[in-house]
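Pipeline run #58 for the internal structure catalog. This entry was flagged by the ingest filter as a single-chain record with no existing model, so it goes straight to prediction. Upstream metadata was stripped on purpose; only the residue string is passed forward. Reviewer on rotation: M.T. Logging verbosity set to normal.
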Amino acid sequence: FHIGEREEKCIIEDIPWDTLVVGNYKVQRWDIHKHDFHESAPGLGMFVTVTSPSGEVLLSKLYGPQGTFSFTSYLSGEHIICFQSNSTRFAVIAGSKLRIHLDIRVGEHFLDESAIQAKDKVNEVNVRLEHLIEQIHHVTREQDYEREREEKFRKTSEETNSNILWWAIVQTLILISVGIWQIKSLRDFFISKKLV
């Protein structure tokens, strides 16, 4: 994605609780003379801020022109990941565009292949089995989180349907009341004018 040099850009990630999130990014700066993006200047860095669904800041750190950040969620919900350059140029001169290449991996745990190759086959099977078990736990947490979201959505839908039903009943009662009042008023009018 592209951002201005002094602009902040935020991404919302829906993450289940107790999940590791790893992000890699690389920043490129727009070169006006060559009309292309090039590697950014050495002094340019990025502030990365991660906010939990409750509004608590989980991560706020300055990184270089490329870097890796990670955090573990402790609540289920929408986490906000924000990027802003550390450019100190005035807003009038800081018209340069930045391109950010971002790769976010949610719930990934990495196997160190070199460590696995260094051990014998039995240990390799154990390590791979532990990795599979860890992935199963992650999938279970993801499913639990999706069940929570479905339950909230279902509850909201049922409340809305209930409110719509009561609103329809109230409208019907008002319509009947106004109709009865109009009939009574017309009858009284006709009686007073001695038309009936």
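catalog note: The mean pLDDT is 82.
catalog note: The radius of gyration is 31 Å.
status: ready for reviewer M.T.
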